[in-house]
Amino acid sequence: METVVFAVLNGVIYGLLLFMLSSGLTLIFSMMGVLNFAHASFYMLGAYFAYTLMEGSNFWIALFIAPVLVGLAGMVVERYGLRKVHARGHVAELLFTFGLAYLIDEVVKIFWGRTAVNYKVPELLDFPLFTLYGAQYPAYRIFILLVAILMLVALWYLLRRTRAGLIIQAALTHPHMVGHLGHNVPMIFMMVFGAGCALAGLAGVIGGNYFITDPAMAVQMGPIVFVVVVVGGLGSLEGAFIAAMIIGLLQTSAVSINASLADIFGFLGLAGTSEVGGITIASMAPMLPFLLLVVVLMVRPTGLMGDREV
Amino acid sequence: MTDMTTTYVDLAPSRAEKFRQRVLPMILFALALAVIPLFGPSRSTLTLLNHMGINIVFALSFNMLLGRAGMLSFGHAVYLGLGGYFCVHVMNWIAADTGIWGAVPIFTMPAFGFGAGALAGAVIGWPSCRRAGTPFAMISLGVAELVAAAGFMFDSLFGGEMGISADRMGGPEFLGLSLGPLNEVYWYIAFWTFVGVVGTYAFTRTPLGKLSEATRDNPERVEFVGYNPQRVRYLVFIFAGAFAGMAGGMSAVQDEIFTPENLSLVPSGAILIAAYVGGIRYFTGPIMGAIVMTYMGSNLSDYTAGWLLYLGLMFVGVVMFVPDGIAGVVYGTWDVLRSGRLNEVAAGWAIRLLGLALMAVSTITLVEVAFRWSDGYGEVFEPFGLELAHGSPLTWVVIVLPFVIGALLLRRVARSESEVTS
Amino acid sequence: MLAIRDLHAYYGKSHVLHGVNMEIMPGEVIALLGRNGVGRSTTAKAIMGEVSPIGSIRFKGQEISGLANHKIARLGLGYVPESRDIFPAMTVRQNLLLGIKDMRRPGKWNIQQMLDMFPNLARRADNPAGVLSGGEKQMLTMCRTLMGDPDLIIIDEPTEGLAPLIVQQVGDMIAEIAKAGVSILLVEQKLSIALRIADRVYVMGHGEIVYGGTPDDFATRDDIRKEWLEV
Amino acid sequence: DTIKMAFIDPLSGAMASSGEPALQSFMLAAEHINANGGVNGDDIEIVGYDNKVSPKESLVQLQKAIDSGARYIIQGNGSSVASAIIEAVNKHNARNPGEEVIFFNYAAVTPAFTNEACSFWHFRFDAHTDMKMNAITDWVAKRDDIKKVYIIGQDYVHGEAVAAAAVSQLKEKRPDIEIVGNELHPLAKVKDFTPYVQKIISSGADAVITGNWGQDMTLLVKAAADAGQKIPYLTFYGGSNGAVAALGEGAVDTLYQVSEGVTNLEASDEQYAMIEEYKERFPQYDYYYDRAFTTLQMFDAAAEKAGSVEPIAVANAMEGLEVDAAYGPATMRAEDHQLQQNLFVTTVAKDVKYGVDNTDLGWRLVDGGKISAEAASTPTTCQMERPE
Amino acid sequence: MSNEALQLIDLKKSFGPAKIIQGVNLQVAKGERHAIIGPNGAGKSTLFNLISGRFLPTSGEIWLNGDKISGKKPFEINRMGLSRSFQVSNIFTNMTVRENVRCGVLYSMGYGYSFWRNIGNLREVSEKTAAILEDVGLIDKAHLPATLLPYADQRTLEIAITIAGGAEVILLDEPTAGMSHSETDRAVALIEKASQGKTLLIVEHDMGVVFNLADRISVLVYGEIIATGTPEEIRGDPKVREAYLGEEVEEGVPA
Ligand SMILES: Nc1ncnc2c1ncn2[C@@H]1O[C@H](COP(=O)(O)OP(=O)(O)OP(=O)(O)O)[C@@H](O)[C@H]1O
Ligand SMILES: Nc1ncnc2c1ncn2[C@@H]1O[C@H](COP(=O)(O)OP(=O)(O)OP(=O)(O)O)[C@@H](O)[C@H]1O
Ligand SMILES: CC(C)C[C@H](N)C(=O)O
Ligand SMILES: [Mg+2]
Ligand SMILES: [Mg+2]
């Protein structure tokens, strides 16, 4: 029982963080068709900016300023980089962001060193909220939960309920027509990219101290964010949310399971002493999301909730 | 008088032309490979050359996918890795002298890698080649992560963190090569690099090779001339896997170890960069890319801590401004030289070169100063006796001024050129 | 209002417009005629910045060639493309909403007026635009363009592929718009409509204007019709 | 002349916090030796090569190091890497007679390297897993309140060796103890240990044994602290950068480590001066790798004894050599090239001379925590092949 | 029965709720040149897409030379002897003209997915390719990349690829769209020659071409064939005049 409760609690928190990270990518990917490989790098920037801002001010200021800074960085990247390669198609865009990820990694190392920085949870939130089955539950995780839900609602509102959201959506399929109606499409794209990056930055501010802020954080989160977005389905915020949750729960609960493959498939004659039988579910946790990705793409190329092929 | 037996216009290039365009470069390439040892390369040079050979074959196999068939793979290292792993196992069987293995020369490893890579391509390609475009790219990414993760789980196959090592000095000698010292390994690598280059080139000349290009350009139309584009992609994928596996076999002998990281996204990304920087639209592009990137990857780090940053900058620069890569520049220059238009463009080129050089000066200064500042050891960047501390105004002059001038020069050339063409 | 001088345009290497000259006065309705593929749509696209124009295009005295398409639109040029490009997933009302350039400065048309003018649309106001019939889509595109308060509308083949009855309706609507003082450049093939509402007629052939005159004059020019319009 | 020594370890990425302080320790040690006249008059130069804890990358770096003239290789972070280097060095020396290189292993503790897989070219300056585990299990054996033990480690040779040693030694010394968990997690990839800690909590363990190091150590105790867990963590590398800071006061009497010495042990004034100099030079880290200093001290002594800095001569001279290290005598056993030295079980306490991680908490010897070199020693199965 | 090259039986196609093809029945005899005309959006291209396997019919059957082809993949249908062109040029843009045509030739000459032969040594393939280029008049431009061709030549290349495989049944979708008078005449001559002894199904808006070329004409309006007959019959059919040709008659009479 307690295993289940903890697995769910942790899975949900991890899932929400994944969602925060991937919502920005969903936004960019679905609005502009750009597969932003550097997305996790903007997540990293968020964490580092917050760390630096916290030295001079406090967490709450960083929580607002850092994502804005990351968003501005994203806008600059769009304006002077992406826009130039846009005409040459999605592969060029993708490669551009691929290279950008390398660059951001290196620049981060210059400014903040090659090892982890001590970016800490704010003291105000650094207390155990309640105790469950003998383990304390830190308040910060509930804070993550709240921010993520807030973000989901705000994004959903922005996309579905405002005219700006309508323009963005129309611009994806009919960029020229939207331009002829007098809307500045390049500008919109720049804003969308900036907003997406800012969301990644926000996830960085919040995730950086929950996990660890080091130059490897981008590389480690990068692929999994793609999994979330693609599995969820292109352009589908709901899909990204569901996929993030599934992956969060899947990975966390896999770690909590003590069984090995032999225990599960034992009746098929798989011996615990064989190598395959000896593999534990817990050790399979890192590969589960990718298994999910491959299976989903093969069965449903539109993703769980998407309406377009990736 | 015209030859009456020819009832059609022979469009194929003449014999002489064929020789000049196809055979001659291969002969020159073989010659170059054969001549290099005469310079008495040091051990480090030999290591570098061997890695270049491996990466040339690897990059060419990658480009069978991206450049030729338009399939962007983020997991091509999987096939090099699986081919290489298989060869490492074979080398250990040879060393153990079990069954017939004792009679197999280590020299033949790339052939085994070729087979293993093809098999891996056939198995993994079956599901993944059913999709093209971005779904294919994403699947390849997922597969790479999956295989790499599996690499850490199945110790008896992949050796876990430690990987699996082998000794290249087992089995019967072939062509008198013990493969112990590096200069003997060089001959081995040179031989197989040549085989790889000829093989991948020959592939482009086959009906399937041509069809893969057609499928890249217009998969839909291919269906209406009788081909199944999925089938075309799948077959190309198997061949790309096979040649990657061959590179794996070369690497197994050179490095004598394979670890699960060999299967991961990192080497896959590196070869993508190498091929792209070299120029994916040209057959020789990946070769140039592999040579340049291998050199930079292994030697640049000796000169500067910022080598990764330089690589990143170079890649982004190529993506943004030189989409045809190094090969594009080389061929473009060559065309101009040959057609004797050098004097027309010389001025523009000179200005452009100057602009680029100025921008490079300022970028290098910035990076070097930044890295020294970041190290915190108080070291100062001192090019040509100039003292450029991060705090000194001179430093910032050297960073800002050339950049601005260079950018202005480049813009001017770009503008005047676009006027000429319109 | 609009003055085009020596306009050229290319698709890649193929040269489509070979020096187009034309003028539109305020309040005028101009019909641009010509056979399939002579470059009428391309002219419209060049004006709107969809294909890059070479030459001079002045709108209200300002040079607009080379401007970004939203800037051209904001100067008061409306465009109804051949492909119509409604936003199918959005409702009719949302489509109209997107026609407004600046929410803070509403133009002389509002959504209610539009719906009043076209009961067909009013009935479908909250349906996704994708389910509309061809004629309704055409009306919607024109209304959407009007929401942006343009001074000149370029309409490309509004009646293409429409049933005769609807062709009639669309014709009436264009006449209505013209009455409200908006200039119109109508790219048409159907002579009946063009001649009914146009103040002046241009005929295009092989990327050039080969004739310009009033409908009455045009009616007398059998030679032009034979050479440039009939198949 | 300079004697080039190649230091091949992670200098970037998750495990750099382990590699960097070690490099700094070796550099400081080399500086001191050079300042005292060098090794037979030659200066030592330490050159760092970043291997990202990857065996394959290490071999590439090794090749580069050898090509650039290094005849001494230093490595420690990761037994998987060490194993690859041992093999590569063996091969290199066999293929290139006259250009032999020697491998100084300062931290890779898998027992095999000085047992079945021992090599003449390899010297280990850290006590190996079985030796360290002996110290830990002795301590556990004395604590009757410990009934359930959880073993967690990194999924590679080292983690496996730690688990195996813990299981077999506990069975021998305290058959009544139940091992309630024996888990391996991926090396340097886990970002959040919360699920693992929760598993430990629900297993009802009274103590945890772990061989984790680097980021894996820090994050593990961080997660334990977040969950409010307060049971002894018996570690090899509780001294990893940041671990004490993560636990804060909670580290007192919960975090234990076994090592060849800690800064708060009784020592000479020169040693205290060295500790302070280190902190001043590298404020980001604490003096931790005492064996780095021992390694170079021993090299210096061996070179002097051999009258040469040639690898084979130095290696021969090093066999059986004894030096006075900071925390007691250290002898290089000739049969297996395993350094024999005192071990200390320490825990975190408040009132100490040197705090770590910029806190006032530091490492203090537990009662009866000193294990003499003889007691720590284990027999070897090494059959060493020596060059003639 | 086997005299029918192509037979459509109650063919229907819907996209979601939109019924685009609503029960088309059509027989095209071997060797016949059959034209399909109709207003924009009537479903002509859709019909071609159904026949050539690009779309799956919602219901109904398609038979080619006595074999059922509905439900088969485009490449299977092509191998059974049916080839089509596209309304929008659909060529291999990065390859040369010669390579384009060669792609059309290869499969039919038995070099499917061959990867053990040097394409340059396939003499028959080169001959056939050259012959086709000669026929369509692109031989001088054989070594140009296809993108660099002028528009009309691209349309010609489109036809060349279509006929290259030697299919017995050829579908051409508005082959002369966008061509000038003289270009159109050349194209018509080419089509005439290429369809010699073959079955041709053609969609055209240019009535000159249609009446010139076709043995029989079908008129498609809103997804239904409202009339089929010889050019004379069609010209005289009041229904057709009303639905399609009508405007032409009206044309020239100012309102
Ligand atoms: N995107 C394009 N790429 C290449 N050529 C094009 C493109 N669009 C149009 N063309 C060609 O340019 C020429 C002019 O096209 P345009 O669309 O302006 O003709 P139009 O007079 O409007 O005829 P239509 O009745 O077809 O609308 C035609 O030959 C057409 O085929
Ligand atoms: N994939 C699709 N999804 C939805 N509707 C479609 C699709 N393809 C075609 N249609 C619709 O089917 C109708 C018929 O299109 P089709 O292209 O067959 O017309 P056509 O007769 O060839 O016209 P044209 O003479 O203009 O080429 C059009 O209304 C079109 O919008
Ligand atoms: C750096 C060390 C902690 C390495 C570890 N002891 C190992 O053997 O792998
Ligand atoms: Mg048009
Ligand atoms: Mg059509």
Automatic annotation (TrEMBL), chain A:
Q: Which GO terms describe its biological process?
A: amino acid transport
Q: Which InterPro entries match?
A: ABC_transp_permease, BCAA_transport_permease
Q: Which Pfam families match?
A: BPD_transp_2
A GO cellular component term found in this entry reads: plasma membrane
Transmembrane ranges?
A: 6-27, 59-82, 94-112, 139-159, 187-212, 224-247, 279-299
Cleaved signal peptide residues: none
Q: GO molecular function terms here?
A: transmembrane transporter activity
Membrane topology, record value: Multi-pass membrane protein
| Keywords, alphabetical | Amino-acid transport, Cell membrane, Membrane, Transmembrane, Transmembrane helix, Transport
> Which compartment or compartments is the protein found in?
Cell membrane
**Family recorded in the similarity comment:** Belongs to the binding-protein-dependent transport system permease family. LivHM subfamily.
This protein is called what?
Branched-chain amino acid ABC transporter permease
Species of origin: Pseudooceanicola sediminis
What is this organism's lineage? Bacteria, Pseudomonadati, Pseudomonadota, Alphaproteobacteria, Rhodobacterales
TrEMBL record, chain B:
Which compartments does it reside in? Cell membrane
Tell me where the transmembrane regions lie. Answer: 23-40, 46-65, 77-94, 100-124, 136-154, 185-203, 234-253, 273-295, 307-331, 394-414
* Any one Gene Ontology molecular-function term assigned to this protein's record: branched-chain amino acid transmembrane transporter activity
> InterPro entries of this UniProt entry?
ABC_transp_permease, LivM-like
Asked if the keyword Transmembrane belongs to this entry, the reply reads yes
- Keywords on this record? Cell membrane, Membrane, Transmembrane, Transmembrane helix
Q: Cellular component per GO?
A: plasma membrane
Membrane topology summary: Multi-pass membrane protein
Q: Pfam families annotated for this entry?
A: BPD_transp_2
PANTHER family named in the record: ABC TRANSPORTER ATP-BINDING PROTEIN, HIGH-AFFINITY BRANCHED-CHAIN AMINO ACID TRANSPORT SYSTEM PERMEASE
Name-wise, this protein is Branched-chain amino acid ABC transporter permease
Q: Which organism is it from?
A: Pseudooceanicola sediminis
The top of its lineage is: Bacteria, Pseudomonadati, Pseudomonadota, Alphaproteobacteria, Rhodobacterales
Automatic annotation (TrEMBL), chain C:
What GO biological process terms are annotated to this protein in UniProt?
L-amino acid transport
Query: Per its UniProt record, what InterPro entries does this chain match?
Result: AAA+_ATPase (IPR003593), ABC_transporter-like_ATP-bd (IPR003439), ABC_transporter-like_CS (IPR017871), BCAA_Transport_ATP-bd_LivF (IPR052156), P-loop_NTPase (IPR027417)
Could you give a GO molecular-function term held by this entry? ATP binding
Instruction: Identify the Pfam families for this entry.
Output: ABC_tran (PF00005)
Alphabetized UniProt keyword annotations: Amino-acid transport, ATP-binding, Nucleotide-binding, Transport
Q: Where is the ABC transporter domain?
A: 2-231
Question: Per the similarity annotation, which family is this?
Answer: Belongs to the ABC transporter superfamily.
Q: Protein name, please? A: ABC transporter ATP-binding protein
UniProtKB/TrEMBL annotation, chain E:
Pfam families linked to this entry: ABC_tran, BCA_ABC_TP_C
- Tell me, what is one Gene Ontology molecular-function annotation carried by this entry? ATP hydrolysis activity
Protein name per Swiss-Prot or TrEMBL: ABC transporter ATP-binding protein
What InterPro entries does the record point to?
AAA+_ATPase (IPR003593), ABC_AA/LPS_Transport (IPR051120), ABC_transporter-like_ATP-bd (IPR003439), BCA_ABC_TP_C (IPR032823), P-loop_NTPase (IPR027417)
| Coiled-coil residues | none
GO CC annotation: plasma membrane
Ranges for the ABC transporter domain? 6-247
Q: Which UniProt keywords apply?
A: ATP-binding, Nucleotide-binding, Transport
